[in-house]
Amino acid sequence: MLQAKVFVTRRLPIELEPLRSLATVEVWPERQPPPYEILLEKVKEIDGLLCLLTDQIDRQLIDSGKLKVISQMAVGYDNIDITAATTRQIPVGNTPGVLTDATADFAWALLMAAARRVVEADRFTRAGLWQTWEPDLLLGPNVTGATLGIVGFGRIGQAIARRAKGFEMQILYTSRQRCSPELEQSLGVEFATLEHLLQKSDFVTLHTPSVDDTYHLISDRQFELMKRSAILINTARGNIVDPDSLYRALASCQIAAAIDVTEPEPIPSDSLLLTLDNLIIAPHIGSASRQTRSKMATMAIANLIAGLRGDRLANCVNPEVYN
Ligand code: GLV
Q1: Is residue 292 in contact with ligand 1, taking CB distance under 6 Å?
Q2: Are residues 65 and 128 located together in one domain of the fold?
Q3: Quick check: is 309 catalytic?
Q4: pTM (two decimals)
Q5: Which residue of 53, 98, 100 sits with most ligand 1 atoms within 8 Å of its CB, as the best mutation to test the pocket?
Q6: Which of 222, 239, 241, 272 is the most exposed place for a label (fewest CB within 10 A)?
Q7: Do 9 and 140 share a domain, yes or no?
Q8: Domain that includes residue 47, residue range
Q9: Which pLDDT score is estimated for 6?
Q10: Is 229:206 a contact under the CB 8 Å cutoff?
Q11: Atom 5 (ligand 1) nearest CA
Q12: CA of 128 to the centre of ligand 1 (A)
């Protein structure tokens, strides 16, 4: 059999030797993702593609090649046309589980930073404005004992709840499926409708996937339901929040927010959101602990190798291809 060919759309934080012994490997060397036209050319000559969420893997691209496997180094895969891949019997891999804690930790970092105004405090200090201890300088709300609303209660939402317990918070969650009473009890969480959760929560944190149902799930009406002092955290996907509604809510100082994801990504340099002090914006780094990124890359390579060998992927988002 001819040696398989694979294309890896960015440099990865691990050695690729196990893959190189099985396939001819080309790694896109730039910091920016390969342009779509390049991907379209590459896909004609490769058996396996290792991609990131910045790569648009649509039907045209999938239909242009003879891929045996698509392996995404991320848990989310909204950049890939899964239906098109499934039609062509191409398994698509992802990297769930290994980034749960890192992402939950980062959501907490954002929550704490927004509540206690860490980024504003740093700017204030560097601007030479720290002149004395002031009773009312940079005040924020209590985190301990506050009410936390978790929207989306999969692996990451539940990891958020485990951390919230330590802060003695009252924890509401909403999700398509309610958890078992045993799980609710052990996590100390209470099921709520989205409306109720928005009305009651001091902090609202988003952990749903990006699907048709969650597109702009948080828009004007939802911001109106929130407490005027509420803080919104988004480490899930940018398009779950309508950016114009977010701007309106923040500009009227109705709420504060901390987000790791935007719509579109990266955030355009002329976005009005960048002018606001009550918003913290990070460049999609929720899973960016060294250990986690290395585990994600290892898992993505393992999925790629399994696909090239014709074995079942350990983590496959379209297992129907095996029916
Ligand atoms: C990151 O956003 C991921 O989906 O892994």
Answers
A1: no
A2: no
A3: no
A4: 0.97
A5: 53
A6: 272
A7: no
A8: 4-97+290-322
A9: 98
A10: no
A11: 74
A12: 38
- Measured from the CB, is residue 76 less than 6 Å from ligand 1? yes
Please say if 265 is a catalytic residue: yes
Q: Both 212 and 304 in a single domain? A: no
Task: Determine the 3-state secondary structure of 212 from DSSP.
Answer: helix
Q: Sign of the C-alpha dihedral, residues 53, 54, 60, 64?
A: negative
Low pLDDT (below 50) residues in the chain:
none
Q: Ligand 1 pocket, 297 CB below 6 A?
A: no
Give the residue among 234, 65, 220, 90 at the shortest CA–CA distance from 156: 234
- Protein residue with its CA nearest to atom 4 in ligand 1: 76
Predicted confidence at residue 142, as pLDDT, reads 98
Residue 126: both structure tokens together: 């560097």
- The reply to whether 91 and 105 lie within a common domain is no
Whole-number pLDDT of residue 253: 87
237 is catalytic: yes
- What is the amino acid identity at position 277? D
For the Cβ of 75 lying below 6 angstroms from any atom of ligand 1, the answer is yes
How many structural domains is the chain composed of? 2
Residues 224 and 245: their CA atoms lie apart, in Å, by: 10
- Asked if 128 and 274 sit in the same domain, the reply is yes
Residues 6+ apart with CB under 8 A from 142: 115
CA 263 to centroid of ligand 1, rounded, Å: 14
Q: Are residues 254 and 312 in the same domain?
A: no
**Are the beta carbons of 321 and 310 closer than 8 angstroms?**
no
Coil, strand, or helix at residue 316? Answer: strand
Q: What integer pLDDT is reported at residue 25 of this predicted model? A: 98
Residue of 117, 237, 263, 293 with catalytic role: 237
Cα(173)–Cα(161) distance, rounded to whole angstroms? 9
